[in-house]
Request: fold
Amino acid sequence: MLNKVKYLLILLISILSSSIVYGENLNLSGQSAILMESQTGRILFEKNAYKKLPMASTTKIMTALVAIEKGNLEENVLIRGDSVGIEGSSIYLKEKEVIKLRDLLYGLMLQSGNDAAVAIASHIGGTVEQFVDFMNIKAKEIGAVNTNFKNPHGLPDSEHYTTAYDLAMITREAFSNSEFVEIVSTKSYVSNRTENNYFYNKNKTLWDYEGGDGVKIGYTMSSGRCLVSSATRNNMKIIAVTLNGHDWFNDNYKLLDYGFENFKMYMLYDKSQFVGKVPTEGGIVDYLNLITEDQLYYPLKDGERENVKIVADLPELIQLPVEKGEKIGSIYTYLDGKLLSRNMVVAKNSITKSNIILRLFNRIKGK
Reply:
């Protein structure tokens, strides 16, 4: 493919904006806060979102994510002595008790069991320290570069911290896992135990807020009240994070209200939408039709649509053969001149090389 040229497309509208909302006064009590749309990661509002702070039991969002990815939820876990009697919230594990990993995860995320966190970490990592290494590796993979975990439960440690932005990114990643989504949206759960088997979700967002569907509360004296909430309305899921906020639930409800009142999800272009056609060399047909590889949805405020442009980077000539779905070019999305997204353009059909007689026949037939 030679001599690429850019075509300005009018494909509806498109944006993947990471632009931050300033100026709105939501009267939040939290030291740090953020509101993020889950599918795209667009930041809808922020307050001191990059300040490193302790996060208490919201730590367990990462604990659950790593455990789900690395473990088998149906496997049995033998409880060791070091998982018993952990301070703070507990599901009252007993040494030598056998419990399924799934039950431990529900105890972790609904009941906020610190003993469940240690049991999960010891089982998945072999040691708690190794599991914490897994947590930190995953954080860096996600892009949560201002986060450092020292334990799987969030009890105080001077080197255990995150930011509102990082915690929203971790939550967004966790929401890509269906098992995580199922667990954190559950109001109550009965585990397969003879005692202390009923787990009740402490996250009031599930009851109090329309569309509320997760995710985790946290509190220690040093961290203050920390809360990650999520809600879905009109095909838009948004994540609200408050760190060190005495009015934590109301803070998050204000954030969620702001998001739903000011943003809507738009389908900006559909999957397999026509982009353009490019000349071919040595094929049965003279042109190859190009389409979008994926659809694009994005949250927009009123007035943003007119500032959006899409630019396609396509070759001037396609050398054959080409397979259906083969990546041919890219679509770049801009808002106010800022590059926000790159998606792929692919071949709509397969085209093989043809001999000159067949090409002439097709051209004559086309006339």
Residues 75 and 162 are 31 Å apart (CA to CA).
